[in-house]
């Protein structure tokens, strides 16, 4: 019997699978080759519609998504992916403009890279996001393992969060941010510190990534995200976790 491996299928156990959604063929081919040479199995498509269909048939470990797609644009693709689950997303944006970056992060992206994307930078961001999301499967917590902060319950071992008696679904980066902020409630953490500890960005980080993630986290854990009780802004410094 001639059992053929489908084109593009990963044959190395544990090889991270990247779904690249990029309409520019030269960029798509270049990044596919570069990432493939760095140990990733790349599944590349040209449109948002193809990308969403491929998600259902061959789920990846991470999505690299161009924002300026024809037809269904990257913002809408990002929103649909995020609404369906916590799959990590890195967006590609052609210009380092506030409106594009902020809108993409607000749509649910975990990180972004400005085009022309250097393969080593994109690959480093992919590995960092995968490290953040590669958590062990949650285990059933005992009451003693659950931290209580107001009506929030945080189980660090099981990586679960509840509000009241209901589970809160957090994307991996949102969970990492919450865990970092709650290490020492009341302590002010700068955006740069959060970039280095949560996003592993170091000197080339962008604080807008932090601000966008804070907004998404507030929308899920606060009663009123416009008047936050838990994740509080300290103007000119950063963020701290309450309630105080």
UniProtKB/TrEMBL annotation:
Keywords: DNA-binding, Phosphoprotein, Transcription, Transcription regulation, Two-component regulatory system. Transmembrane segments: none annotated. The keyword tRNA-binding does not apply. GO terms for molecular function: DNA binding. Residues 17-130 form the Response regulatory domain. Pfam families: Response_reg (PF00072), Trans_reg_C (PF00486). Coiled coil: none annotated. It comes from the Bacteria. The keyword Ribonucleoprotein does not apply. Residues 144-243 form the OmpR/PhoB-type domain. The modification 4-aspartylphosphate is found at residue 66. Gene3D superfamilies: 3.40.50.2300, 6.10.250.690, Winged helix-like DNA-binding domain superfamily/Winged helix DNA-binding domain. InterPro entries: CheY-like_superfamily, OmpR/PhoB-type_DNA-bd, Sig_transdc_resp-reg_C-effctor, Sig_transdc_resp-reg_receiver, WalR-like, WH-like_DNA-bd_sf. CDD domains: REC_OmpR, trans_reg_C. Residues 144-243 bind DNA. PROSITE patterns: OMPR_PHOB, RESPONSE_REGULATORY. This is DNA-binding response OmpR family regulator. It comes from Amycolatopsis roodepoortensis.
């Amino acid at each position: 019997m001639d059992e053929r491996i489908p084109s593009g299928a990963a044959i190395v156990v544990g090889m991270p699978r990247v779904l690249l959604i990029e309409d520019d063929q030269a960029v798509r081919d270049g990044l596919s080759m570069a990432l493939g040479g760095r140990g990733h199995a790349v599944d590349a498509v040209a449109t948002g519609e193809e990308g969403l269909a491929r998600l259902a048939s061959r789920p990846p470990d991470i999505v690299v998504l161009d924002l300026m797609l024809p037809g269904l644009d990257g913002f809408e693709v990002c929103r649909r992916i995020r609404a369906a689950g916590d799959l990590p997303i890195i967006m590609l944006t052609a210009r380092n403009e506030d409106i594009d970056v902020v809108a993409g992060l607000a749509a649910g992206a975990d990180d972004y890279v400005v085009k022309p994307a250097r393969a080593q930078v994109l690959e480093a961001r992919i590995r960092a996001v995968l490290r953040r999301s590669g958590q062990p499967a949650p285990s059933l917590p005992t009451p003693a393992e659950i931290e209580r902060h107001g009506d929030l319950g945080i189980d660090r071992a099981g990586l679960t969060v509840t509000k009241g008696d209901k589970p809160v679904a957090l994307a991996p980066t949102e969970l990492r941010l919450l865990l970092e902020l709650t290490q020492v409630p009341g302590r002010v953490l700068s955006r740069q510190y959060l970039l280095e500890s949560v996003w592993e960005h170091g000197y080339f980080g962008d604080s807008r990534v932090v601000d966008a993630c804070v907004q998404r986290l507030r929308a899920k854990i606060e009663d009123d995200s416009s008047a936050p009780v838990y994740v509080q802004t300290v103007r000119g410094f950063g963020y701290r976790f309450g309630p105080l």
